[in-house]
Amino acid sequence: MAQQLWMLRHGEAVPHDSKPDAERELTPRGRLQAEAAGGALAALSAEFAACYTSPKVRARETAELACAYLNIEPVLEDSLADVHLIIVAMLLLMTALAAVPAAGALAFGIWLRRELERTAG
User: Fold this and answer.
1) Are 61 and 12 in contact (CB under 8 A)?
2) Residue 66 and residue 54: Cα distance in Å, rounded?
3) Which own/partner pairs from 24-28 qualify as long-range (CB within 8 Å, at least 24 positions apart)?
4) CA dist 98 to 14, 32, 60, 81, 118, Å?
5) Stated pTM of the model
6) What residues contact residue 51 under an 8 Å CB cut-off, 6+ apart?
7) What is the pLDDT of residues 76-118, one digit of tens each?
């Protein structure tokens, strides 16, 4: 089977004005959403090699709750906290996959690896 990239948005979080953005945690509803997402992914019987998450509290909580159903531990990736990087990555991926699916996925993987290395060092 071809490699796939799955993206999961965090569950519902407390309001923006309640605390600094990076510290916003999931609401009880958001926790249920994250658990439901993990259960749904597990029901697909797909194998996940890794799960990378932003260090933002709501993203980390979502990953932890969903990954409990997938038998993997989420890995914190600081560069994923930059929303602009995520938007650029998603646009690049959508454009590349629309043109030539296999080549687009490879190009995206190469770009993402380089970007993660650049922001890590």
Assistant:
1) no
2) 14
3) 24/56, 24/57, 24/58, 25/57, 25/58, 25/61, 26/57, 26/58, 26/61, 26/62, 26/65
4) 35, 33, 30, 26, 27
5) 0.70
6) 63, 66, 67, 70, 72, 73, 74, 75
7) 988 788 766 666 666 666 666 665 555 555 665 666 667 666 6
Angle between helices 57-67 and 28-43 (to 10 degrees): 40
Output the six-digit token pair for 106. 């490879």
Torsions phi, psi for 53 (to 5 deg): -135, 150
Helix runs in the chain, H state only = 28-43, 57-67, 83-99, 101-120
Distance CA 100, CA 118 (A): 26
Q: State the Cα–Cα distance between residues 81 and 39, nearest whole angstrom.
A: 25
